[in-house]
Amino acid sequence: SAVISQKPSRDICQRGTSLTIQCQVDSQVTMMFWYRQQPGQSLTLIATANQGSEATYESGFVIDKFPISRPNLTFSTLTVSNMSPEDSSIYLCSVAKTSGGDTDTQYFGPGTRLTVL
Amino acid sequence: QKEVEQNSGPLSVPEGAIASLNCTYSDRGSQSFFWYRQYSGKSPELIMSIYSNGDKEDGRFTAQLNKASQYVSLLIRDSQPSDSATYLCAVNRNNDMRFGAGTRLTVKP
User: Fold this and answer.
1) How high is the pLDDT of residue B7?
2) Could you read off the pLDDT of B42-53 as tens digits, one per residue?
3) B43, B92, B102 ranked by CB distance to A42: nearest
4) Please, how many CA atoms are within 13 Å of residue B70, restricted to the half-sphere of its CB?
């Protein structure tokens, strides 16, 4: 499986500010995804990060609040904008392999734990 | 009805026993099925994938799939305290992955 890193691993932010989370993969991957996991909850897909084009957002998530970039096949960023305490969560990047079978299997990065005061 | 349903637990088993985790899903067009393990404070880690009806074994883990009943399960044999974690069932259709809420498993020494 690919090696996935996320930065920062955790942060404490003030209300109204923005935070950009980076996701780096050690090999080219077709699909990159951003999830949110609120305390005690399961994973909720925010969006699919598309290389060279706008991300595809799930219902309830909008680009103005969660702008996403994916400039190449190994890197993506998620920004949480104008944060409120309700945005406190773990944000996870996941990737799916480019080839070799099991291209729908997702592997997760270590996550970014965000606390908004 | 939730798309992927799991009993939230906690499920408690003694060390050495078989732990049985269950999951049902609503989308009959689902193509692939996954079990992830998530330790507290960590990200999900893939345990197994299964694509066709029947059993798939990997070490102490066996995944079972029944598409007619829309049911997938995970058996953990010879459970160890290190297996204590939350187990997430995930169902995929055309790269659209949906997760259950997870079952918390505790293995007692």
Assistant:
1) 87
2) 999 999 999 999
3) B102
4) 14
